User: What shape does this take?
Amino acid sequence: MFEPAPDDPATERLTGDGRARLDTAIGPFLDRASSAVLVIEGYAQSGSGGELYLRSRVRASLVRDYFLGKFGMTPQSVGVMPLGKESAGSPNGEPWDGVALAMFDDKKAVKAKGR
Assistant: This one.
């Protein structure tokens, strides 16, 4: 999902494939985006404690900025959570290196929409 930025290899940017994967992941939930809170969790598996925090925060922030720009989500309803190496509950129980999306929606709104 991420690759080194060509002008600064120490920083990352979203890849085209990464953007496509994010579009696929968020697509089914866009109808709820206006009434929900989206938290983008960032993960990184290499580096010191401070580097893990910063790298996972940057990854989550890149995704947040992408969603705000592409889908017009409001900044107040999309947050980031840098989690570093802490990836309990990840797919297949393996360490997670990237991002995860967590959407919190009003139960009444979901029930009214028939979900």
